[in-house]
Amino acid sequence: MKRIRITVAYDGTDYCGWQIQPNGITVEEVLNRELSRLLGENIRIIGASRTDSGVHALGNAAVFDTETRIPPERISYALNQRLPEDIVIVRSEEVPADWHPRYQSCVKTYEYHIFNADVPDPTRRRNTYFVSYPLNLEDMRRAAGYLTGTHDFVSFCNIRTSVEDTVRTIYDLEISRQEVYGAGSGRDGREITIRIRGNGFLYNMVRIIVGTLLRVGRGFYTPEQVKDILEAENRQAAGVTAPPQGLVLVGIEYL
Fold it and tell me: Could you give the count of Cα atoms lying within 13 Å of 22 in the half-sphere of its Cβ?
């Protein structure tokens, strides 16, 4: 028996998230099914990050145990022949038998992509959040500064979370802008990327941070109010949860 770690990329648009659930198809379900068929065993993977419905990934991680004689590094090639086009195994490798993707020290990196223009671009609708109003990026960057470091992020997590410890560390929170062509209107748009690195994230934490920063960008909050929201330790104090399609799990760096 050996334990295999796979790095998984996927377009989450047509999936009800990562974790198996009764109301629709999930990434975990597809991987379990196709791995079981490929290896002739009953495979049940363990994922590192249970992304929500509509959220994407470039580098999620998962492990499974198998008796197969297929070399670990070749499993990714064989599995990709069976998977739908919106799920890809980036790599496969053997890890120690007790290695667990959720119990290792790591740094996770997420990006949230916003298409900021006068009109939507239909080619970007699956992986960006369309925002038509002007955004003050300098104010958003100032607000982001209050969120870096180690804090109790209970104001920035869904009230349905079951975790007891809501303290997390954000190492970097960067906001960048790239000029892009708009949706056939002759006008330019901007893709705004909010990139966040931390030692872990609470349920919906990144999307609530984005929703709050957008309120700052519109002028509804001052940058200094984000510090007050953080210290309030009250979900109702923060902004709305940004929609899922703009969010991508870029990668997980195990330490």
Answer: 0
pLDDT score of 199: 96
Q: Which residues contact 164 (CB under 8 A, 6 or more apart)?
A: none
Q: Which of 11, 14, 52, 121 is catalytic?
A: 52
pLDDT tens-digit series, residues 103-139: 999 999 999 999 999 889 899 999 999 999 999 999 9
Q: What is the pLDDT of residue 163?
A: 80
Q: What is the average pLDDT score of the chain?
A: 95
Spatial neighbors of 176 by CB under 8 A, at least 6 apart, are: 192, 193, 195
Give the pLDDT confidence of 181-209 residue by residue, as tens digits. Answer: 655 545 578 999 999 999 999 999 999 99
pTM, full prediction: 0.94
- What does the H/E/C string look like for the chain? CEEEEEEEEECHHHCCCCCCECCECCHHHHHHHHHHHHHCCCCCCEECCCCCCCCEEEEEEEEEEECCCCCHHHHHHHHHCCCCCCEEEEEEEEECCCCCCCCCCEEEEEEEEEEECCCCCHHHCCCCEEECCCCCHHHHHHHHHCCCEEEECHHHCCCCCCCCCCEEEEEEEEEEEEEEECCCCCCEEEEEEEEEEECCCCCCHHHHHHHHHHHHHHCCCCHHHHHHHHHHCCHHHCCCCCCHHHEEEEEEEEC
The reply to whether 52 belongs to the active site is yes
Share above pLDDT 70 across residues of the chain, in percent, rounded to a whole number: 96
Please classify residue 48 by burial: count the beta carbons closer than 10 Å to its beta carbon, then call 0-12 exposed, 13-18 middle and 19+ buried. Answer: buried
